[in-house]
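Supplementary Methods, section 5.1.

A reviewer requested that the exact input to the structure prediction be made available. We therefore reproduce it here, unchanged from the version used in the analyses.
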Amino acid sequence: MAADENLLAKVRMLVTDLDGTIMARRPEFELYQAFQQKIDAFHSARDTIWCICTGRSLRSFTHVFLAMRSFGIAPDYVITKHAYIFQKKEQGYAPHWVWNAQIRSLQTRHLMRVRRVTPRLSRMFASKIPAPFVRTTHMDRERACFRFNDTELAATAAETLREKTRGLRYLQIFHYGNEVDVRVIPFTKGLAVAELARHLSIPPSQILVIGDGHNDLSMMEVNAPCYTGCPGNAVPEIIETVHRAGGTSPPAAAWAA
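The structure derived from this sequence is encoded token-by-token as follows.
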């Protein structure tokens, strides 16, 4: 994230991932007070919103965020399970009922489709590539991993898979050396953030998105041309996306630092 103080003046909505971005594996109490000051400054700059977008359930989020909340830190909105919007109220977080029902239906349809496709990929490789050149190292409804005896063959296979699965939003193809990893990832964070921004009448150009993992890509891509940033421990695809959009990734692991 650029260290330009003028950036916050342009932003009306801050969207952050939780695990690995805002929170480390252990509570870092020494950082919480500084982080609280940053969030308070962000809120006081103008009529701004802070939203945490996480793969956790609302119950899990409430539990792991308890330490931060004790310091007076609490987001205005939480998007749970990559998709479901909740707004902070005096009694807790209240659901955005209409959107949550719509996204549940959409998610169910997409996931059923990609889960039928994943097992077919293994059969496709088995029928077209001789066994000595490729083997399946993992296979279930959510993930398929293939190991090739040649890096060029793996690269060709990954590109072929991307072409064949281009229309499947939740199916992502990753290529590492001589391995190809096919994962079912619910890329709905971007859809949920876009809906929340629409609900609040905030254009993408006034959104700052910070994330570290593959499932954060959709927040940066669906909501372009938003501002983007990431911690130094982000996956390469996130760092590349952030740099391509003109953002930066600091060496520190946490945005608060």
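The chain has nine helices and eleven strands. These observations are discussed further in the main text.
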